[in-house]
Each structure stands twice: as C-alpha cells, then as structure tokens.
C-alpha cells in the first residue's frame, strides 16, 4: 500500500513529505492508521545527527495514537478497529527482563529495533527498491505504520487521539518516573530541573502522588506559570539567585527540625550533564534519590564527588518512566479520561503533516510544550 510520510533523508536536513510504499503486517505484526503524533525532543535528537544510533533515511516519530486496520497471523491481543498507542518500549511478557519484574526494558526485539528494522530483520517501508528505516520501532511520522504486536497498547476508544498520543512518550515518561522509578510518597519534597514537556509531567505526577513541596528550576521565567498550572509550589531561576543553585535549593528545602536540607527526590529533565550533577547534589543526605530522565549527547559523561554517593544519595536512570507499555499505558489513558492528569493544556500547537518542520522550529524556539500532527 501507499502512505504519506515525513521522511528524514539525512541528519540535519528538514523532513521531506513524500509518498512511500508500506508492506502489510507479517506474523505477529499489526498495521495501524496513525491519527495523531507528537513531535518530541528525541526525534530532534536523532534528526540533528547527535544520536549515535541514528540511521537514515528513516521515518521518525514515536509518540502516536491510531486505529488497528489489519493484523498478521497469530495476533491475538488486538483486532481491527481497536484504538492503540504504539510503544517504543515494548512489553513481550516473556523475555528475562519482563519476567524479572525489575525493569520495563523488554529485550525481545531490541537488536533489530536499534537497527531500524522489524523483528525479522527487514523494513516494511520503501520507495521503489530503496529501503527506508523504521524509528524506535514506531515511525509515527507516517499516516500508516506497522508494529510488532508486543509494541501496541490497546486503550480506551473514547479517548481523543490528538491528546493521548502524548502518552506514547512525554506523559508516561514524566508521570512514570514519579510512580515507577522514584516511588514518591505522600508528603515528599521534590525538585524538577527543566520545565519542558517532560518536566511538567513530572510535576503533575508529583502532585498526584501527594508531594508537599514541588520546586521547579528553569532559566525561562515564562515556565513559572506553566509549572504552577500543574502543581509546582516554588519556582527558581538559577540566573536570578545569588551564588550556586545547589546550596540555594538545599536551604530552601530545610523544614522543621531538619536543618540538613535537600530534596527527597530530584529529577533532571534537561539532558545537561552539569544539571544532572546539580540535581544529585541538591538531594537529601542519607536518602535523596536523583532521577536522570534527560538524554545527553553521545560521549558525554556525568560526574560527582564519591562523597555524595557514600553519604547515601542515589542516582537512578529511567526510560519511558519505568512503564510497562501494554500494562501501564492504558491505565494512564484512563487517568486522563478520569481527570486525574491534564494533557490538553500542553498540546500548544496542532499541525498538518505538511507543517511538521514548523513543529521542530517551535520546539527550537521554546514556543511550544508539545506540537501534534493530526492526520
């Protein structure tokens, strides 16, 4: 079949809208009509050439929602007409990682997914004889796409595509980091570094978890209003305080008889390795957890004095918010439908496929929280 797609022809170049060939689903695969897709910083990370796993030409996009239009032999968990969210972190429920219940990082199709291919080692996308690679197992910048069954989450059919697509990455990553990775308890203190789309979802996750003090840190004062909208209690712009931000935050989090200070939980949503260190060192001596969510560029490293770790602080990383896709994503969609979390305010721009490069421009300029392409 034919499908319209935004193709990344080479690193650093704008996406090109074109008609491509799409082979139908094979055994264990699902054909989806993508109804909406978000434009995420990870897409930009790959398009820029900074992603060491970036392969071109490829159809990017990993934050989508759509309808199942066909299934291959052996597919049992979804059927034609089901509303689904593609999963860049699948859940096979059979590999050692899934069975361990200690991680969400399913390994069933990791090798081929990282090569831009389907599990059988081939691509479903092409133009004539030229192969086009898949991206993160999803390729939602195409109106139609094929995914493995284990990389599809069936969701509430009443949920609107143009908002729940954001659950395919940004919402789940932020909210999930709070509940799955940090396991934040009621009454906790927390600091969130970077109030973009991920940071705002961390904030609303913290509010839902019952955190008492939620401090947002950002260089852009315009983010203060956004943070407060989702539950932030304090805002800090490092450029507008005297001295280093770490002792400032430690002092700000001193409460009652606790004169040591430091947050119970800190979250880096920037991808900046200097900020990652600040986040760790702003956590509480003895029990502070610092969660690394932001993705740094290839070759970059984080560092701190060993004393920071010896005295009880913990660095943790999280991918997809520690969520098990087929199990947790439908639940988060239900949270949205029940009004427990907000998504609509964060969808600041809705675009046509032909305008997709404008979405990247808005991201670069800091003028959008999330731009969504609606097919």
The secondary structure category is alpha/beta
Helix fraction bin:
25-40%
Tell me the series of helices and strands, N- to C-terminal. Answer: EEEHEEEHHEEEEHHEHEHEHEHEHEHEHE
Query: How much strand?
Result: 15-25%
Count the strands? 18
Shape annotation: globular
Which stretches are poorly predicted, pLDDT < 50 over at least 5 residues? none
Radius of gyration: 21 Å
The separation of the N and C termini measures: 17 Å
Tell me about the biggest sheet?
Answer: 7 strands, mixed
Number of distinct helices: 12
Average pLDDT taken over every residue:
96
Explain this structure.
- The chain has 375 residues and is α/β, with parallel strands linked by helices.
- Helices cover 26% and strands 23% of the residues.
- Strands 3, 5, 6, 9, 10, 17 and 18 form a seven-stranded mixed sheet that branches. Strands 13-12-11-14-15-16 form a six-stranded parallel sheet, sandwiched between helices.
- It is globular, with a radius of gyration of 21 Å.
- 49% of the residues are buried.
- The mean pLDDT is 96.
Write the layout of secondary structure elements.
Layout: E1 2-8, E2 16-22, E3 29-38, H1 41-47, E4 58-59, E5 64-71, E6 83-86, H2 96-100, H3 110-113, E7 125-127, E8 130-132, E9 144-148, E10 152-154, H4 161-164, H5 170-182, E11 189-193, H6 197-209, E12 213-217, H7 223-229, E13 234-236, H8 245-252, E14 265-268, H9 273-281, E15 289-292, H10 306-310, E16 314-317, H11 325-337, E17 347-351, H12 356-364, E18 370-374
Helix pairs in contact: 5-6
